[in-house]
Every structure is written in C-alpha cells, then in structure tokens.
Amino acid sequence: MAAAALRPSPKKVEKPRTKQITPPSSLKEFIIAHEIDIPGAILLCALVGSAAGSPVARKMVQLSYETQPGSNLYDKGMDDAYLVAFWVLAFTFLRAFIMKYVFTPFAKAYGADNPAKQLRFAEQGWTFTYSSTFWSLGMYIMYRSPHWFNPAQFWIDYPHILINGRMKWYYLVQLGFWIQQVYVLNIEKRRKDHYAMFTHHIITIILITSSYCVNFTRIGNAVLCCMDLADILLSLAKILNYLNLRTICDITFGLFALGWLVTRHGFFTMIIWSTAFDPHKYMDMKWEPENGKYFTPFTQKIYLGLFLLLNMIMLFWFAMILKVIVKVLTGDSATDTRSDSEDSDDEDKRK
C-alpha cells in the first residue's frame, strides 16, 4: 500500500477544446458585421459581369436608354432601377469601409477617446464626405443648366424628357443614397427625432422618384442643392466637436445655422413659391403621358403638400438649432440636441 501510495496518480487526459463561435445575437448585428464583405462581393460580381458582357450587370453599372450612341442624351425607363440598386449597395459598402478604415483610425489618433465617440465621428465623417461631393456636383450641374438661379426654367419648355448623362447619373445615384439612408437610420442608435428623420427620408425618396419619372429633374436638382449645403456644415461642426475643438466648432455651427436659414428656408421657399404660382405662366398643365406631360393642378397640389410637409419638418429642426444657438450665447458649446442618450451620457462624464 505504501508503494502504491508513492506512485504518481495517472494524469487526466483532457479533450482538446474547440473554439466556440458565438453567432450574432440578431439579424441586425449580422448585417452590420458584414456591411463590407456582402455588398462588396455583389458589387464585384456586377463589375465583372458587366465587363464580361452580361446585360443585367451592364444595366447595374452603366446608364440605360441613351437615344443614340455617343449622343449623351438619355431617356428614362424601368431599367434605371438596376443602377439605383447598384448604388444602394455601393453606398452601404463605401460607408462601412470608409468609416472603419479612414475615419475611425483618424478619430483614435486625434482625440476621440471612447468607442461611442469614435463611431459618431466616423458617421459624421462619412456624411461630410458624401454631402460635400454631391453638393459640389449638383451645383456644377445647375451652374451649367438653364435653371441656375432662374426658377422660371423649371417650367419653360416642359416636359424635359431627355437629359444629359451627368444629370441622369447624379439623379439616380442620389436616389440610391436616400434609399440607403433608410437602412442607415434603422441600424444607427436612435436619436430623439428618429420619426421626423424617417418621414423626411420617405418624402425625399418620393420627390426624387416622382420628379424623375414626370420629367422635373431641374427642380429636383435645385431642391437637392438646397438641402446638401447645411449637411456639410453640420457634419463638419460635429467632427470638430468630437475632436474637442470647441471654438472652431462653435464658429462652424454658426455658419451652419446661417446656411440652413438661407438655403432651407430662403431658397427652398422660393422653390415652393415658384411651384405654386409659376407653372400656369409657362405650360398648359395638361395630363398627357404619351407626350411626357404629367403636371396638372391636381399634381401641383400634391407636390406643394409634400414640399410644405418637408418644410414643417425642417422648421422643427430649426427650432432645435435655435436652442443650440441660445446655449452658445449663454457660454456653453454647440452640441447636437438630436443626439441619443449614449452621447449625452458621454458628454455628462466629460463635464
């Protein structure tokens, strides 16, 4: 027994451990986790398919309905939906890729000191990138068009059925962006004005789609330009806020408030006024789909209703802007009153 007691006990053989892979807890988390690879794979297939001569893939990548090869004049049709779908995926991919590999590392390196702030910084960085790019393109298109600061040209020579390639691409890609924004709105942490923002996006999609189909791309171009400038300045102000550059942030926010007032409540009001009082001066306002005419007194009322609803939402947001201005004038820094509770908690901790 003594000898047996002195013998070492046999070692317990442990089974090799298998690495446990925890699946995403929800479909939402799965989609967010694959925002780069899944859309990227589909986009790559579309590009390769287009190069290989696939008719469907080519519709996704190239403009459809050119009147004559090399004319740079395009009609409109159902095949345009392929290009819109391509850009919905493209914006999903680009947004996730640029946020992850450009703006998040930048935020970490330059003062954004927690993950929530880094995420918000990256979101605003993407918004700034998109808005500045497409506002510049939209202004360039309008500058080279008859409707440059001339609302009468929205209606003169209507219907404007054929449009050049630049205008068509700009319009369809903008539609793709706003459809993708509905997706973004539902994956981001909800802000206080979630339903106002959702309503704004739906109205914008309706206006872009319908104005494209009924040959009012000129007025659509002008409206989009009115909206994009304020987004550039607001996203820039938020970026500066997350980097703790308070003074520059406050100055930029002041420019944003002024730009909002001029473009969204000045120029946009001029567009609403023109829609209400100018069409009958330059067009017969008859319903003739075979001739590309869709603007009647009834459809005029529909557009005016959508414009006014959009304006009411923007007045709601302008009231929030005024609250921030009051805070700045009383010695506080400009912060987004629409931010979610997580951002508010972070701000309270900082103070």
From TrEMBL:
Membrane topology reported for the UniProt record = Multi-pass membrane protein
> Which key words are in the record?
Membrane, Transmembrane, Transmembrane helix
Q: What terms describe the molecular function in GO for this protein?
A: sphingosine N-acyltransferase activity
Q: Name one GO biological process term.
A: ceramide biosynthetic process
Signal peptide location in the record? none
Q: Which SMART domains match?
A: TLC
**Matching InterPro entries:** Lag1/Lac1-like, TLC-dom
Give the highest taxon in the source lineage.
Answer: Eukaryota
Q: Does the keyword Membrane apply?
A: yes
Q: Which residues cross the membrane?
A: 81-103, 124-143, 169-187, 194-213, 252-276, 302-322
Q: Pfam families, alphabetically? A: TRAM_LAG1_CLN8 (PF03798)
GO CC list = membrane
Q: Which family does it belong to?
A: Belongs to the sphingosine N-acyltransferase family.
Tell me the protein's name: TLC domain-containing protein
Task: State the organism of origin.
Answer: Umbelopsis ramanniana AG
